[in-house]
Amino acid sequence: MLRYLDQYISVMESNDYLSKFDTKGGGQFTVNVKKIFEQLTWACIENIIVEKYGSKAARIFRVIRMKKYVEQEDIQKEAMVPAKEAKQLTYKLLEENFLQIQTFRKPGGGNAGAPKSFFLFYVNQSQIVSMLLELSYKALYNSITRLTHDKTVNKRLIEKSQRLESIVETMKERGESDAYINEILETLTPPEQEILAKVKLRVKSLYSAEIGIDETIFMLKLYQQYQK
Question: How much is the pTM?
């Protein structure tokens, strides 16, 4: 890694992630944390768009973000997406508040010329972050509520399974036979085992979802913090 350190530093400087403020000791640098979190947030937003609307929608979003203000006709060309599909995806992103639209009026020519209106699409990162935070909080609440519900409804079965696991662990430590251990395990009926397996799978999925949502909230809140 040290062989390419200068190249790594050069790349990070070119993206404004680092800036040199002194040449002592081979160079002293400051880290642009605000810029880093801005880019991480862009990546987070684009990943969400890919998951919800596909890679073409993300490409359209990226084009508008890079160009600042773009007319509809230019979007399909820059994103290399067929006109009809580009229009559908653009307005879907607009509908879901990932894009904003600005209307401009250009005076018409001559005395009787009617003013001409044209529309430019643009991206407001702070607004998207606020929207995603609100959605994330709702998703987290729903996940926790569902998890609590599943645990409450299946409380007796979960506790029974935990008691059996504790008993079996003790039996193994005492060196009990496998036949005797299996006999104890069979007190959990096949229907109960099936229900328990489904509950455990759902709980695991909900825990995983909560972790993902927490990470998203953490990222977005840090972005907001560094914008102050």
Answer: 0.76
